[in-house]
């Protein structure tokens, strides 16, 4: 499955912490502030309700994305294959975790490869956008896509997580132009994704103008990666820095509204603390795709 590397060690730590610790955001999604009007006379048949939709040329049975989580370790490989099998059976979309580990250590690529389990699934490759400031470019983005036979590429934006990570990559300047260059050169759609703090109207407008095909908002209200990093902290100073961001971010409901205002025609994936079908319905009503 590949040798143990600093990146794969970090990925294994992330899995353990998410399983064993409370890493929830101190904020709620904001969805609790919205209620549907009950219709006593719906005037339609339940068995005629169609939840399917077509995204990037592939049909989904329901508007659900199993969003990016992990890769780069044997545990991650098992998780990804189980999730891919579930996505194939239910015909929903799936994203893989950051593939940087496999770009830098190709023997880890099998921890991401799930096409055997999910031949028909709408599948997203994934790299950290900040890596575009650390020597990555269109070539590495294409390698990530080819590695898993992906239908699109996620560039995740996790500036806060990188800032509180002891080994974080924190050169964030000039990324927008590099994202735009990837959008222009890559033959598959590019998706911009947060990791738990959401997008503002300003950021959404900038990304829309740069040419991204979709935004996965990953708003506040679910997992907080600053809290994950708090549990990885090597000393009290690092722990307190990460803990300070417990209540940071744009809540999911607010982020949907802001992104939709900035980009009326943008494909929006709502994520961040989505726990029930009613949450999904609220997100769609607020403007998610």
What's the SSE pattern? HEEEHEHEHEHHEHEHHHEH
Classify the fold: give the CATH topology of the domain at 6-35 and 126-286.
TIM Barrel
CATH class of the domain at 6-35 and 126-286: Alpha Beta
Structural class: alpha/beta
- Portion of residues in beta strands equals 5-15%
**Large-scale geometry:** globular
Query: Numbering strands along the chain, what is their spatial order in the largest sheet?
Result: 3-4-5-6-7-8-9
* Distance from first to last alpha carbon: 37 Å
Helix-residue proportion: 25-40%
Reported CATH architecture of the domain at 6-35 and 126-286? Alpha-Beta Barrel
What is the CA-based Rg, rounded? 19 Å
Q: Mind explaining what this structure looks like?
A:
- By secondary structure, this protein is an alpha/beta fold.
- The protein has a domain at 6-35 and 126-286: Alpha-Beta Barrel (TIM Barrel), CATH 3.20.20.
- It has helices spanning 6-20, 74-90, 100-104, 138-148, 159-164, 175-185, 201-210, 225-232, 236-243, 252-262, 277-286, and strands at 53-55, 58-60, 65-66, 93-95, 123-128, 152-156, 190-193, 214-216, 267-269.
- The strands form 2 sheets. It has a 7-stranded parallel sheet. A two-stranded antiparallel sheet has the order 1-2.
- Helix 1 (6-20) crosses helix 8 and helix 8 (225-232) runs antiparallel to helix 9.
- The longest helix is centred in the N-terminal third of the chain and has 17 residues, at 74-90.
């Amino acid at each position: 499955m590949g040798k143990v590397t600093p990146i794969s060690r970090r990925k294994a730590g992330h899995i353990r912490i998410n399983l064993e610790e409370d890493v929830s955001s101190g904020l709620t999604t904001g969805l609790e502030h919205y209620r549907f009007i009950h219709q006593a006379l719906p005037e339609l048949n339940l068995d005629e309700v169609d939840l399917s939709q077509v995204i990037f040329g592939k049909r989904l049975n329901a508007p659900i994305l199993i969003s990016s989580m992990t890769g780069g370790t044997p545990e991650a490989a098992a998780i990804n294959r189980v999730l891919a099998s579930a996505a194939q059976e239910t015909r929903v979309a799936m994203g893989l975790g950051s593939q940087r580990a496999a770009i830098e250590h190709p023997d880890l690529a099998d921890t991401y490869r799930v096409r055997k389990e999910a031949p028909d699934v709408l599948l997203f490759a994934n790299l950290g956008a900040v890596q575009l400031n650390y020597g990555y470019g269109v070539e590495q983005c294409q390698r990530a896509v080819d590695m898993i036979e992906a239908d699109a590429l996620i560039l995740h934006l996790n500036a806060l997580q990188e800032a509180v990570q002891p080994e974080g990559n924190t050169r964030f300047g000039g990324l927008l132009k590099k994202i735009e260059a990837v959008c222009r050169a890559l033959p598959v759609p590019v998706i911009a994704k947060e990791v738990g703090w959401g997008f503002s109207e300003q950021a959404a407008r900038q990304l829309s103008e740069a040419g991204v095909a979709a935004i996965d908002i990953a708003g506040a209200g679910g997992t907080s990666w600053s809290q994950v990093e708090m549990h990885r902290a090597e000393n009290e100073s690092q722990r307190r820095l990460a803990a300070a961001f417990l209540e940071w971010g744009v809540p999911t409901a607010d982020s949907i509204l802001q992104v939709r205002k900035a980009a009326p025609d943008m494909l929006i994936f709502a994520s961040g603390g989505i726990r029930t079908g009613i949450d999904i319905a609220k997100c769609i009503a607020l403007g998610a795709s």
